[in-house]
Specification:
By secondary structure, the protein is mainly alpha-helical. The protein is 65% helix and 11% strand. It comes from Mustela putorius furo.
């Protein structure tokens, strides 16, 4: 028996369907993959429209009748948020592929060690997604506040219709940032549900293990 990705232990038996809790967990990871991919893609697209500069927590300035990103944040801030979303999406994708392979080709069972590893990964993922979502929310609000303070528009969404300098900058920047933030919050909820499911599976395994031990002990007595 060998340990697979995410703590799964494929054996040499035939194909076996995953339990319903794990199938539900699989659906959650599918949704988490989509949310992470959307957040990473939209933020990367927004940063690209600003010529690689990070607009989160940035300060907008007036350049005649046009807007410009006068004081951008460090590019590493956007790289961090996009990287967290992208790496977690990749992790979900790899788990999905492994689960499909295990359930269709080989018998699979997640042991106690694998479940503990999955719990740790889920807890870390929740923390990282929470940090990324907060950066997106407050970073976007800070940028929009600086735009509205210029008294050239009443909202950040309306600022998308105003020309930016250089031309072609900030294409649909607010829509992209809003989509990235929404995807991150949904992703956070999904990871929290995954963690709750995994805790429930761990408790269930402990109960079944203790019951089996007591049954074996009573049967072994003369």
């Amino acid at each position: 028996m060998r340990r697979g990705l995410g703590g799964w232990l494929p054996g040499g038996g035939g194909a076996m369907a995953l339990p319903w809790l794990q199938r539900f967990e699989l659906l959650l990871f599918t949704a988490a993959f989509l949310c992470g991919a959307v957040a990473a893609a939209t933020l990367t697209r927004t940063q690209g429209s600003f010529s690689g500069r990070c607009p989160l927590y940035g300060v907008a300035t007036l350049n005649g009748s046009s807007l410009a990103l006068g004081q951008p944040s460090a590019p590493s801030l956007c790289y961090f948020v996009a990287g967290v979303s992208g790496l977690l999406a990749l992790y979900c994708l790899l788990l999905l592929l492994f689960w499909v392979y295990s359930s269709c080709i080989e018998d699979s069972h997640r042991g106690p060690i694998g479940l503990c590893i999955a719990l740790v990964i889920s807890a870390i993922a929740i923390f990282l997604v929470l940090v990324a979502a907060c950066i997106l929310r407050f970073g976007t609000r800070s940028l929009c506040k600086s735009i509205v303070s210029l008294n050239i528009t009443i909202s950040c969404s309306e600022a998308q219709k105003i020309p930016w300098t250089p031309p072609g900058t900030a294409l649909q920047f607010y829509s992209n940032l809003h989509n990235a933030e929404t995807s991150s919050w949904v992703n956070l909820v999904l990871w929290c549900v995954v963690l709750v499911l995994q805790v429930g599976q761990r408790d269930r395994e402990r109960i079944l293990g203790s019951t089996s031990s007591r049954a074996w002990g009573s049967n072994s007595q003369p």
